[in-house]
Amino acid sequence: MQKPMETFKENYEQRNLAAQNWHARGRKVIGYMCNAVPEEMIMAAGALPVRITGRPGAPVDTMVRYVGSTAYSEGFMATMLNDLVTRKIDYLDGLVLPETRHTEVTQYGHLEMIRELWPETNLPPIHKIDEPQSWSHSGVEYYYKQLGRFREKLQEWTGYAVSDRRLRDAIELCNESRSLLKEVQKLRVAGKVTGTEMLTIIGSSWFMDKDEHNMLLRMFLREAEERPAKPAKPLYLDGSPLDNLQLYSLIEECGAVVVDEDNCWGMRSVEEQVDLDRFSDPLEALAQRYHYRHPCPYLVYPLTARCEYCTQKLNGTTAKGILFYADENDAAQHWDYAYKKETLEASGLPILPLLHEEYQIRDRDAMKATLSAFIERL
């Protein structure tokens, strides 16, 4: 029998595994881009939610290059789009896109263009959730209506009635997952869980059945609590979405470990619960959580909110240094760094900005040398 970490790793590396097994049993699978999509609603519709990811180093098909822009002809967004149109992801009964950043809105246009030009690609039906780009009471009211439309679309796709009871059950299951992941985070801070393990565990939760993942989390916590702490220099990581282990692995090879991050594939995605005690309507509870979640740099919130969140994270960190890592095509993260650079500096911690980096780390030796030089100074 596999140990929990082995199962997490298997599903993190083979990201289609659970979805293909689920679909083979005649059950619906709904893909989504970005943690702004409430996975609870997809679960309440009896479907498996699967987050779409990129693949460092994956080739990009000619049709994607034809309709795409040079801004993402390679990398994170391009490889996501490529896997959809070339049917490497062939099990989706629907695809959900939140309007949270320009590139994903652009992807919607490109997917529809590909559907028209190459109908044989047989893309799944697409639903957009229009999310307000700033925090406000009127914004959450508008978002609530958008989630109502999303509920109707899910019922159309799956044939399931997304009742309030089913929504509450799904919310409670996801809240349990977040609570368990926070317990794993405590072990990471204590030196008993590595950064690569933490990213693998969180990441696998986006691809697996949540019930199974929670069961494995409880087993993993019992095992990991008995581990001795491993000595490593603790780092805080900020910047672009990291849906892979390239950077975390190199950091660990250099004798350090990421103990916390501001990353939508890391802890930022699981820090907040859906408050069913405060909001009796489960749809309103979801609207409140997802609209007012920790600020994302791809939304036009007041940028001061990003600085406040950064200060909150750094005040509680055990890190001895900060890495800011931005992909070369990620304009939002470059602006984010420029705006909150003073906030990072105010922590008093040494900072290594790694800007304009390729999605695939091609020269590992050069990156390792840069990281090693920084870590040795801590």
Account of the 3D structure:
This protein is of the alpha/beta class and 378 residues long. The chain has 15 helices and 8 strands. The strands form 2 sheets. Strands 2-1-3-4 form a 4-stranded parallel β-sheet, sandwiched between helices. Strand 7 (321-327), helix 14 (331-346) and strand 8 (351-357) form a beta-alpha-beta unit. The longest helix is centred in the middle third of the chain and has 26 residues, at 164-189. The model has no long low-confidence stretch (mean pLDDT 90).
Please write out the topology.
Elements: H1 4-13, H2 17-24, E1 29-32, H3 39-44, E2 48-51, H4 62-67, H5 76-85, E3 94-98, H6 102-117, E4 126-129, H7 137-158, H8 164-189, H9 195-204, H10 210-225, E5 233-239, H11 246-253, E6 256-262, H12 282-291, H13 303-315, E7 321-327, H14 331-346, E8 351-357, H15 364-376
Parallel strand pairs: 1-2, 1-3, 3-4, 5-6, 5-7, 7-8
